[in-house]
Specification:
Layout (H helix, E strand, L loop, with lengths): L11 H36 L5 E10 L11 E9 L3 E5 L6 H8 L7 E6 L2 E2 L5 H8 E4 L11 H11 L7 H11 L16 H12 L6 E5 L7 H16 L4 E6 L2 H6 L2 E4 L4
Parallel strand pairs: 3-8, 3-9, 6-7, 7-8
Antiparallel strand pairs: 1-2, 1-4, 4-5
Helix pairs in contact: 4-5, 4-6, 5-6
Length: about 270
Amino acid sequence: MVNKKKNNYVSKDNLEKNVSQKEIKFKNKESKDVSNKKEKKEFKEKNTFPKNIILSVKNASYRYSDADVDDYALKDVSFDFEAGKIYAIRGRSGTGKTTLLSLISGLEKCTEGEILFDGKNLKDMNLDKYRNSDIGIVFQSYNLLPFMTASENIILSMDVNGLKIKNKKERAIELMAKVGLKEIYADRKVLRLSGGEQQRVAIARSLSYNPKMIIADEPTGNLDKQIETEILEIFKKLAHEEKKCVIIVTHSGNVCDAVDEVYDLKKV
């Protein structure tokens, strides 16, 4: 019986072939690892909310339920808003300014697109809590209760939001001082206050629960230029010193000149 000796000799060609296969396998693995790292990085970048951006409007569109399919009140709007800045949203009548405010405030939901607050989609949030703690709203017509005093209007906001404050009137007076109103105004009925004074009370009321964002709808529309400038200074301090995000819907050129950034809406 002849014993055949196993040939352990590896030819140069076979060696190169084996090495080549190993290299290819290693490079494929390395390429796969790099690809995975790249995908992870892209996923992280896509799903991480930028630190300074507090509100992001992404391709937001809105159509009323009884409107035609292609009849949009707002179409494909994308804006980012940062904490510590003051913004103006400008546009002619019918461009969707009020609609955009309703979407940002959570009063309406986007037909298409999304709105993120602190990285969370408004559609997934408790909107009552959002409106009562995260955003403060200031109206052109002030929306104060006329049979109440200035401080009572502010205290009512604290009560509605369930704030546990030992001395609410003292806190109301502090907030009034922040917007330039002396303590003597605290016990005055709203109807005894001028337009500028009422708007200051309205701003103080919006600050009663320390929101991260202030949304103001034509807040200087009923005021003269001097008072408008003073109200704008209040908003600027809230943004630049207290790091709140302030968003103002306006037609005023003075307001647009005073803010950090202006976003224009165009008619659909």
